[in-house]
Amino acid sequence: MALSKILPAGQDQFAGARNLIINGAMQVAQRGTQTNQTTAFTACDRFDIAVNGAAIMTTSQDTTVPSGQGFSNSLKIDVTTADSSLAASDLALLRHKIEAQNLQHLLYGTSDAKNITLSFWVRSPKTGTHIIELRHANASYYNSQAYTINTADTWQNVTVTFDGYTAAAFNNDNGLGLVIDWWLAAGSTFSGGTLASNTWQNTDANRTVGQVNCVDNAANNFYLTGVQLEVGSTATDFEHRSYGDELARCQRYYETSTATDYFSGLDGSNIYLSHEFAVVKRAAPTMTYTVSQSSGSINSLTASTDHYRWAISGTSVGAWSGVLVKADAEL
Amino acid sequence: MDEMTITSAQYVTNIDGSNMAVKTTINKKEMFVSIDPANRHYAEIMRQVDAGELTIAEAD
Q1: Which end of chain A has less Cβ packing within 10 Å, N or C?
Q2: CATH number of A253-328
Q3: The CATH number of the domain covering residues in A3-250
Q4: What is the ipTM, given to two decimal places?
């Protein structure tokens, strides 16, 4: 019997943990299509956009995908209001944020800091230079690199390797550690300098030199899928995870109840009801709710990392409410 | 870049009377924000409180 056997990537004992990105195949979209967005979480879980300036987007989970790669979904960013004349401080970018305690094995802040490789499929409305960037949130340092889109509105696979950062470690906690920025547009504040490719630096003007403006027309659509971040200097095949696996990972940060609670027979005093979350949250979350029909009132909605509790009262016997809740523990 | 416009804030108490959350309106949306420094909404509320830009009212 062979003493050892080397299996293809994705079939070894570490399968499921190689990709540091959650929802890289855009399978999970708990929020659904989001309209009139500037800075907000997108339709696809764990990805958000940031905008300063005139641009407004609609984001959705789309079925436009690169052929033959096994993906069923992509994140679509539809520019609905353009920013064709960028002011110095204008920006538009797509982000993915990673929890600091999940990055300890990168050994940042030591001489053994590991290289990491990001790969993704992108379909941009613009040809030319695009900037992809890592942001070390605990040190406020950036590592920016350019990639070139050769043909507009055509899927392209991109692979970029980033050197490890030896000067500062990630906090070992549940806070923000690393941010990946896909730049869509950048004013001169961020692009007016000299690109320091694959160099950890903290000068804003050197971050996005050459970035084309992907939000200059309301006809523009930007797509992304197949996002993978892994240790080492080589991109391996995308690690396809099950929907249930990805959903549970996403629910650490955001969860929406799928059933509506109804009450009847309220007599004017508070009643309290607790529900456990499907997944323990990263932090005690922010709670919001939607009332589908009510003659009572929601007096409180409180939460810890593993459950939420709300108090509801009605003004008369027979009052009732239908309530759908959302828990947000995003970074 | 992650600007939050907070227009009201009031503590919400648990059954035992302790402060458990902040009922607030952020970017025109009503929210119940848990009292947890790792919660990004609570962190922003406290940043604005420390800067003298916001006051959290006591619970009713």
Answers
A1: N
A2: 2.60.40
A3: 2.60.120.260
A4: 0.95
